[in-house]
Amino acid sequence: MDFNVAFTAAHEALPYMLGGVVWTAGLIVGAMLLGLALGVPLAVLQVYGPRSVRRMVATYVWLFRGIPILVQLYIFYFGLLAWLSGLPGLTGIGLDSPFVAAVMVLGLTSSAYQSQIFRGAIQSLPAGQLKAGRALGMTDGQVIRTVVLPQALRLSIPAWSNEYSILLKDSALAFTIGVVEIMGRMRAIASTTHEPVSMSFVAGIIFFVLTWVGVKGLSILENKVRIAGYTRQGAV
Amino acid sequence: MSQHSENTPILEARNLIKVLGGNRVLDSVNLDIGRGRVKVLIGPSGAGKSTLLQCLNFLTPPDSGHILLEGREVNAGSKKELCSFRQQVGMIFQDFNLFDHLSALENVRVALMKVRGMSKLDATERAVAELKRVGLVDRAAHYPANLSGGQKQRVAIARALAMDPKVMLLDEPTSALDPELIGEVLTVIRALAQGGMTMIMATHQISFSASLADEFIFMEKGRIVEHGSPAELLGKGVGSRTQAFCAKISELTGEADGEFRS
């Protein structure tokens, strides 16, 4: 391998590959937010819901944890969403786009994992917190919103940042259904330049930097919302 | 329908039964308390004092029995009624249970805003007044992790008082405190009693509570086995179970001299 050639190719490919960051970022932000929006209520239902609801949540979690993302991408993109977008009233709103399919698959899978992060955090809180809220006349909903979740979400940030780094790398699978994110562009350019190894290095470095930035950002957030003097040894 | 009069107890429990893990933790307990009275629950650990207090505001729902507030039975099946009942019954826990993510001020203020629907300004004003009452206004911005145990318990008392409770339930309020911090909490409790607050308190602080209580209630194995004024139960040569128990714990804790004044 001629390092000079490889380096020049990588250097020339960089702007094109960086263009994929926008798509990767879109996938990650969309999926993390979808996972958060679903994961929090799922966790609350799994802890406080009636038995039947708890069982339904557990089944949901098993389903999305048990099916590989690649399989889900095919099911959603070629199956479910292709079918939905053909229904009257659902055409032309982009349901058949690969990006939408990828955000949904990554987001739903992440919601299953995130719900378990939040569930663990909720269950690690002392029972006295709930009791104190109830004793003041708060409804369970008020206690959950004003006492339980603000504490549980803070405790969840380290695990959430782990989930981010996993999801970021899972997002590289989205190229299989045609999302031109980093990996998709890497494959395209590798096939025209015949420099797959150097292109892989470039993609790897971009993913690494994105992971570092995200994890660093979340750790800054963690410090920012930290409660003075508050430590919980051994929990979460 | 009982009518509301001076003699109607503020809080009344009839025939409370609670079974936990096959044990009758509460065995047909009856209790009532009139306005401005102070009743003190004593007894060995596992006697059911804590369960009784937690049943009185349905934090632990009793298996059967009735709770009446000012002569009206509380229907705990209605969430609305339960929440409104709990607002009127303040509770102080052994381990404080301050909301860990809120400052002292926010701890006192949060229920005023969420439950009472007060504006932030009014709630803050009230919370500051309550913190002043327990001598902690200079700690308003501190988080629980930066307060001593005694300070935490005083914030918890301020938090309960802010809701204008008709009766306060205190579940061993000083048991989790280092000895040198007990005094500041007892001072607040004494001031409350002298201010006419109706209270039911479980405690092992015998000589302190003997000086406050209208009635001692001695519990054992989920039952009330003796009750009466401290003088009746602890006077010289009475020979009550309460006296024997109190003598034993004062020996262990080195409290007073085993002689109880009332």
Secondary structure layout plus pairing:
The complex is a heterodimer of chains A (236) and B (262).
Chain A: H1 3-48, H2 51-66, H3 69-84, H4 98-124, H5 127-135, H6 140-170, H7 182-193, H8 196-224
Helix pairs in contact in A: 1-2, 1-4, 1-6, 1-7, 1-8, 2-4, 3-4, 4-6, 5-6, 6-8, 7-8
Chain B: E1 11-20, E2 23-33, E3 38-42, H1 49-56, E4 64-69, E5 72-73, H2 79-87, E6 89-92, H3 104-114, H4 120-133, H5 149-161, E7 167-171, H6 179-194, E8 199-202, H7 206-210, E9 215-220, E10 223-228, H8 230-234, H9 241-253
Parallel strand pairs in B: 3-8, 3-9, 6-7, 7-8
Antiparallel strand pairs in B: 1-2, 1-4, 4-5, 9-10
Helix pairs in contact in B: 3-4, 3-5, 4-5, 5-6
Note down, in words, how this protein is organized:
Chain A starts with a helix and ends in a 12-residue tail after the last helix. Helices cover 79% and strands 0% of the residues of chain A. In chain A, helix 1 (3-48) runs antiparallel to helix 2, helix 1 packs across helix 8 (196-224) and helix 2 (51-66) crosses helix 4. Chain A has helices spanning 3-48, 51-66, 69-84, 98-124, 127-135, 140-170, 182-193, 196-224. By secondary structure, chain A is an all-alpha fold. Chain A has a single domain, classed as MetI-like (MetI-like fold, Orthogonal Bundle), CATH 1.10.3720. Chain A is globular, with a radius of gyration of 21 Å. Chain B has 262 residues and is α/β, with parallel strands linked by helices. Chain B has a single domain, classed as Rossmann fold (3-Layer(aba) Sandwich), CATH 3.40.50. Chain B has helices at 49-56, 79-87, 104-114, 120-133, 149-161, 179-194, 206-210, 230-234, 241-253; strands at residues 11-20, 23-33, 38-42, 64-69, 72-73, 89-92, 167-171, 199-202, 215-220, 223-228. In chain B, strand 9 (215-220) and strand 10 (223-228) form a beta hairpin. In chain B, helix 3 packs parallel to helix 5 (149-161) and helix 5 runs parallel beside helix 6 (179-194). At the A-B interface, helix 5 and helix 6 of A face helix 2, strand 6, helix 3 and helix 5 of B.
